[in-house]
Amino acid sequence: MNTFIKYLYKSILMYLVFSGSMIFAQNSNDALRLTIPGIISNARALGMGNSYATLGNDYASIIFNPAGLGLAGKSEITGSLYYRYFENTATFFGNTNYHKNSYTGLNQFGLLLKTPTTQGSLVFAFGYQKDKDYTSTISFDGYNPNNNSMIQDLTSYNDDVPFLLGLSYPLFDINDEYIKDTTNIEGRLNQSGTVYQEGYIDRYSFGTGIEAAEKVYVGFSINYLNGRYTGDREYYEEDVNNFYVTPTDPLDPKTAGFNTFYFNDILSWNMDAWEFRFGFLFNWFDFLSIGGSAKLATKFKIEENYYLDGYSEFNKNYSIELDPSNSGLKYNITTPAEFTLGASLDLSLLKVSGQATFIDYSQMKFSGDLVKDLISGNNKIIKENFRPVINYNLGAELRIPFTQIRGRAGIMYLPSPYDNDPENFDRVYLTLGAGIIAGDALRFDVAYSYGFWDTYGDNYSTNQSRVFQKIETHTILITTTIML
């Protein structure tokens, strides 16, 4: 491709929708987004650290252990509201930025029907549950003194974004054949950005719990999962020290005095899947309960839209703007099976429960209509970088003597799914809750969860523009149950 053709191609690209930018590509974080368990349930379960595999007797059993539905003493209608507050303290090249995001919404609405039986128990449940909430954010701002940048990273892939913005240019051999793109930018830029993430996965469920033998319960649930996700990122690179005075595009003298590179990309998902859960529970003299559940591997169908916009600015009020582009893809992500075992003790005034859940994150998998090399590359990265983990939940419920008031506390410990991550990258949630039963027909519960962990993210490449993050989350959940 000679010089004239390359630059003619540039002018054409300015008016076309392109989808090959390396600013964004599907990666293992997308699979992780679907796999890490959510913590939203009902207020009683959350107050006890979601250690609910052997407690049950209400609608929440449909997502923890469907066998627990069989413990229900009455039919009921239940509904929940929740509030989530997300805080992120980011450290970037010595600078600290604090950012927050929040969401309030309906969490659960369910109907539990206990059918008449001559012996044993048969209970059905139908309803809606908020399975995951993706509300989060990050903001960072710092000077990167090293010889790297997003501009250089994209140019190394011959990406057209810096080329279209006059920040890179083509190299040719002595026969005027195109070799690659290059750039005069050599790092030493101030880098800043903000990312807002929002979205959810909703769960529409049908389940049943049966007393198959005396004090032995089995159950299953069929769940249709449907959701949306949006990640909106703004990113800047700026020459705050005026290093770049010569043109960044040798054929365009107006690109002298580079000031700013900016892009805004928005990733949007629509997704759905069918999920199947099975469980068992053994209740020994209403004192000791032992149970377990299994969630089968779940294939999500993803419909993705990717929006990209950007500009570059130079001295003398000269700027180049990208025409906004949209591109769409359809592909699949399979999340691994989950296996839970738990036990609980009923000590009259005090109930104590614990459970462990096994998840092998290395079994996450891409498939579908993506480029084959991208599918195989992502799946290889998953196998090499992720590990099996065991999540732990522990909870307790204390009945205040001579009252219908319950106090609750719990903890959730979710180890990082990445190989060799330090312990401070594990997610920890501390929970508190309370409940009151009003007569025989009304139950009111409230719970609070405080979560914390460390993580990091790379703006590009590996450990060249890394943002270290301290995450804190606050969740308040209120549940009202009417017993029929």
Throw out a few tags for this protein:
484 residues; mainly beta; Porin; 14-stranded antiparallel barrel; two-stranded antiparallel ribbon; 21 strands; disordered N terminus
Protein model, in words:
The protein is mainly beta. The chain has a single domain, classed as Outer membrane protein transport protein (OMPP1/FadL/TodX) (Porin, Beta Barrel). It has 7 helices and 21 strands. The protein has helices at 3-13, 28-35, 43-47, 61-64, 150-156, 160-164, 372-385, and strands at residues 76-92, 95-115, 122-133, 136-144, 169-172, 178-182, 189-213, 216-238, 258-284, 288-295, 298-314, 318-321, 325-335, 338-347, 350-360, 365-368, 388-399, 405-414, 427-438, 442-458, 466-483. The strands form 2 sheets. A 14-stranded antiparallel β-barrel has the order 1-2-3-7-8-9-10-14-15-17-18-19-20-21. The chain has a two-stranded antiparallel ribbon with strand order 5-6. The longest helix is centred in the C-terminal third of the chain and has 14 residues, at 372-385. The model is unreliable at 1-22 (pLDDT under 50). InterPro entries: OMPP1/FadL/TodX (IPR005017). The chain crosses the membrane at residues 7-25. Its main location: membrane. It comes from hydrothermal vent metagenome. One of its GO terms (molecular function) is long-chain fatty acid transporting porin activity.
Question: What's the short story on this structure?
Answer:
The chain is mainly beta. It has helices at 3-13, 28-35, 43-47, 61-64, 150-156, 160-164, 372-385; strands spanning 76-92, 95-115, 122-133, 136-144, 169-172, 178-182, 189-213, 216-238, 258-284, 288-295, 298-314, 318-321, 325-335, 338-347, 350-360, 365-368, 388-399, 405-414, 427-438, 442-458, 466-483.
